[in-house]
Automatic annotation (TrEMBL):
Gene3D superfamilies: Umud Fragment, subunit A (2.10.109.10). GO terms for cellular component: membrane. It is an enzyme of class 3 (hydrolase). It comes from Nocardioides luti. It comes from the Bacteria. Residues 30-96 form the Peptidase S26 domain. The chain crosses the membrane at residues 12-38. Its EC number is 3.4.21.89. NCBIfam families: sigpep_I_arch (TIGR02228). One of its GO terms (biological process) is signal peptide processing. InterPro entries: LexA/Signal_pep-like_sf, Peptidase_S26, Peptidase_S26B. The keyword Hydrolase applies. This is Signal peptidase I.
Amino acid sequence: MRCMKSSSVPGWLSWTGQVVSWLVILGVGALFAVALLVPRLAGATPYVIETGSMTPKLPPGTLVVVKPVAPEQIAPGDVITYQIKSGDPTVVTHRVIDQGVDMTGQVRWHTQGDANDAADEGWVLPQQVKGREWYAVPYVGYVTSFVTGQQRGVLIAVVVLGLLGYAANQFRGSLKERRAKTETVETS
């Protein structure tokens, strides 16, 4: 008969710790899926709202994911992300407040931030539009704005590997506990 060493951590506390650990792992995984995986698979692009011009619906730090759409699918009331000047990488995310057609028959839009008192200057042309809002997640943008480009890819890989290692360690620990309990029951 083997003598089993009793654990100093009560069973309910250990179980609660494992549940919390799994919830954190699943939460972080869901966050990465919403922020990075889903947009890439769907051909969308994530952007971070950096100013208060779209509050209260899209406060600073909101991750807004936009999908490219045909110009005829954009209407007043839609939130679009567009280049301030065609070819300039700087973008703005504002609401379409008016739609018009120029003399050549090309559609164009007037935009305005929800919190702004005045409309944006000039018209937005189709070639400036990056996409229409698909979904937005408040405050997730703060996390993604700290790292950029290649750093983001490395950080994601490190976090994913770390979480998988942690999950494997937790799983292995619970298997050891089950085996120990089974051995204790069998020897009794």
